[in-house]
Specification:
194 residues; mainly alpha; 6 helices; 56% helix
Length: 194
Amino acid sequence: MDDTPAPTDDPKPQGKGRPTPKRRDAEGKRRQPVSAPKDRKEAYRQMRAKQAAEREKARRGMLAGDERYFPARDKGPARKFARDWVDSRRLPSQYFLPFSLLILLATWIPWPMEVRAQVLNLVIAVGWPIMMIGVLFTSVYVAWKVKREVAQKMPGESLRGVGFYAAMRALQIRRLRFPPPQVLPGGKPVQPKR
């Protein structure tokens, strides 16, 4: 019996197929030309341009929904859940600002005196109280429901401020919410803009 291994058709390649470059050549390739500012104004101008580029990158990241660029109040899985929960529903409180504007405009229109008295009475006695009660009940419901859902779905997650965060988001007009909604009413994901 022969103990020599059988030759294989696929020999292991030896080396990387090229010589290792000298250190000075490798360092020379990595070096970038330094554009030192000529004076203080030029240094300030370069600093502002760099900061503007960083802000633009952060803004694009926030609009794209990249959590790395969010402010601290919007970070975390509980806050993301709260945003998605609010954004997937049409809530009465999101119409608070448009309804307030409508009521304000109704009081500014120069009605005849007898009509103006009726409009103001209707606004003060009926419109504002109904709107405020609706906003109050919606906010309490949203805060309670979101906190309960987060506690069930994410048992180890902190609930501090999540309910208030969701209630405040529910008060905002959908188009003006920040970070932008990632889900449509009904729960379907928002299609990215091209």
